[in-house]
Each structure stands twice: as structure tokens, then as C-alpha cells.
Amino acid sequence: MQNSVEISRLEKRFTRRDSNEVHRAIDNVSFSVSSNSFFTLLGPSGCGKTTTLRCLAGLESADSGEISMNGKSVFSADARRDISPEDRPIAMVPQSYGIWPHMKVFDNAAFPLRYGRKRSSRAEQKKRVGAMLEQVGLADYADRWSTQLSGGQQQRLALARALLCEPEVLLLDEPLSNLDAKLRSQLRGELRAFQQKFGVTTIYVTHDQGEALALSDTIVVMNRGRIEQIGSPSEIYDSPVSRFVADFVGSANLVPGVVDERAGGGAVDAKTSIGLLRCERYATPPAPPSAGQELHVCIRPEHVRVISSASEGEGPNRFPAKVKSTEYLGDRQELVVTVGDVVLRAHGDAHLDARPGDDVGVVLDPAWTVALWS
Ligand code: ATP
To answer: Which stretches in the chain have pLDDT values below 50?
Structure first.
């Protein structure tokens, strides 16, 4: 598949006003975005997502690195090339939507066709804006003031206006963050449907891991200006490469340990305070794992199975445990159990008869147990 956007070794430094200290907002960031894909920058507040997006848009100039779009260089620190935002094949929807309150819905949407690089005749504007408002469900609102729209409608209007620019790349900065939870989940489905319908390469910024998992073809997890992991939603969730990713995306039990001497054979055996843990998943280690090397074992609660006793069945990663608390959720129970002095979150069958203080067993499914090197 062709790449629409390539970022290579991008770095952006800011100087803090109060202390004059230089701070790397993005540090040696490189990634490629396939054409027509939904690509998400995910990470906590301050990790550099918006700065990366602003560099792509041309609103911020990086201190080093390169950016190309559809095979053409739009930024090169070495060559001192920095194509202006209006000459890049992009449209950006900022967090606040950037809708003009003194204009009607139609005029807001028509703006790029009146003043932008896609200028067109009045008749053409009427036709295209009308068709686009129809597509985003705002045809009946064309003559209303944009201030009369709900949050969700404003978001759709901002999207309509961006798509009317016919961008090669659509940049979306936390577009759902101003909406309530119900609307957010409804619009998240719509966003993905629009992206597929228009086939536009989309780069999306969010700190919400649920949104990232639901919407994306590819996710980049960022932390303190650096990339921690790039992968599909299931790669990120099922095979995190660091404690940071395991903990930030979804919920994770993390148990410290060391590589056991018997490690090998397509799995890593970790000595932990629970006992020996077999990990059939692990990222390519920086160097071949050696006995005694420190690691963390990650296991998601849904892969910790609570059984009536550790002696029930056989196989690795099976331990006696004590129930600390239970929470009935209808389709399942969420339990907190202790194995020795290690506390684990687990999912159990809704009808499992387990109460705080009960002695039970747990199985940490080795196929989903991940060894993390950092
Ligand atoms: P959020 O989710 O809160 O928007 P973010 O991941 O998008 O966060 P950025 O806005 O990219 O993070 O900021 C990255 C870092 O760079 C932060 O530490 C921020 O304080 C700093 N930063 C961003 N813009 C500037 C600026 N204009 N001047 C100084 N520091 C800045």
C-alpha cells in the first residue's frame, strides 16, 4: 500500500519561558501513514500529539527531520523547506472546530470554496455544499446560525467544511472531546464511516484509548515526546511492548520478575513472586534474553481465569489464590484476587460462586501472557 504521509526523525524543542529550560516536545519521531487509512496518535496529555499534528499541518516548524505527503517533501529542516499550511494537501479540524459564529451553516461549510485553494463558482458551491451537508445529516440546517447547532452537529459541520477542501490528508485534533459520552460513542462510529466513505487518509489525535482502539487501522502510542509502539489496535492491546503501553491501553496486571534459566523454546519463563510464569508473547528483546534479566509480566484481567481450586486441571501458570473482592456486572464478574502478596484483577463467569475470603485458583493463560523488557 502506498504511503500518504511520512515523518522522519522529527524533533521539536520549546524553551520554557519561566526557566529558559529547553524541552523536547517531540523527540526523534518517525512513522508512515498508508493511503486511505485511519491513523491515530494516542498518549497522555503533554506527550506531543498536538505538536506532531501541528508540524504536519505546517502550523509549527520542527527543529529537525523531514515530512513528506504523497511522495512530495513539505518539510525538511536540512533543506530549509517549509511549505505553508495552505499549500499542503491537508485540512485540519481543531479541537474547538473553528466554526464562525457570525455565519450560517451553509456559509461556514462553503468557506473553502469561496476563499480557499478550491475556489469555485456560486452554482458549484451551492451544489457541492448542499450535497456535503446532506451527507453529514445537516441539509435541514443550512440556513441556521451555526451557534444554533448542538455540539455533535458543530462537529459534523467542521468535518463537512474540511472534506469540502478535498484534502489528501485530514487532521483531526481530539474532535470528540467536547461532547458527552453518549454522543461521543455515536459520533465515533460516524467518523469511521465517513472516513471509509470518503477514503481520505486521516490522522487523529486522542488521549482516549477506547476511541483509538475502535477507530484506527494503526495506532502510534506516544510518551514524553517519543514513540513507544506502532501497531494495529490488536497488536497494541494484545502484544504491548512496554509497561507504559500495557498500562495506558486497557487495564493490565503487571508482575515484576527475572528471566528463568530454563527460558527458551518460543516462550519466556519468568521467575516472579507468584511462581514461574510462562509468557508465550514477548516483543523482540533488545538483546537475546539471558537468565536473571529483569522483566515485567503483563496479563490482562480477561486472561486471568478464576477456577474453584488450583488443583483443578493442569498446565502452567496455575496458582492458589484468595478472593479479595467481587463485582457482579451481569455478563461477568470482576474480581480482585491475591496470589501470595501479589494483587491481580481477574474476570470470572457471572455465575461463579466466589466471595471475599474464599480460597480459589487462578490460571494466567500463557498464550496471552506477555514478557515486557521495559
Ligand atoms: P494534550 O493532550 O494535553 O493536548 P499533547 O499530547 O497534544 O497534550 P502537546 O500539546 O503536543 O501535547 O505538548 C507537548 C509538550 O510541549 C508539552 O509539555 C507542552 O507543554 C509543550 N508545548 C506545546 N506547545 C508549546 C509552546 N508553544 N511553548 C512551549 N511549550 C509547548
So the answer is: none
**Kind plus residue range of the DSSP H or E element containing 90:** strand 90-93
Residue 335: its H or E element: strand 332-339
pLDDT digit string, tens, across residues 87-146: 999 999 887 777 888 888 988 888 878 886 777 888 888 888 988 898 888 889 888 998
Going from the C-alpha of 152 to that of each of 163, 166, 167, 176, 190, the distances in angstroms are: 17, 22, 22, 8, 11
Measured from CB, residues less than 6 Å from any atom of ligand 1 are 14, 25, 43, 45-51, 207
Contact 365, 238 (CB under 8 A): no
This model's pTM is above 0.80: yes
- Give, in order, the Cα–Cα distances in Å from 70 to each of 2, 73, 234, 331: 8, 8, 27, 47
Question: Which of 10, 26, 47, 56 to mutate to test ligand 1, by most ligand atoms within 8 A of the CB atom?
Answer: 47
Q: How close is the Cα of 159 to the center of ligand 1, in Å?
A: 24
Residue 320 CB-half CA count within 13 A:
5
Pick among 1.10.760.10, 2.40.50.140, 2.60.120.40, 3.40.640.10: CATH of 251-372: 2.40.50.140
CA angle 132, 36, 46 (to 5 degrees): 95
Domain ranges of the chain: 3-238, 251-372
Fold held by 3-238: Rossmann fold (3.40.50)
| pLDDT tens column, 219-237 | 999 999 999 999 999 999 9
pLDDT at 220 (0 to 100) = 98
Q: How far apart are CA 176 and CA 197, in angstroms?
A: 19
Q: 51 C-alpha vs ligand 1 centroid, how far in Å?
A: 6
CA of 2 to the centre of ligand 1 (A): 31
For the chain, what is the radius of gyration of the CA atoms?
Answer: 25
Q: Take atom 1 of ligand 1 and give the residue whose Cα is closest.
A: 45
Pick from 101, 139, 131: which is nearest to 113 by CA?
A: 131
Angle of CA points 98, 101, 105, to nearest 5°:
85
**Closest atom, ligand 1, to C-alpha of 60:** 27
**pLDDT value for 326:** 92
The model's pLDDT over 266-297, given as tens digits with 9 standing for 90+, comes to 788 999 999 999 999 988 776 777 888 899 99
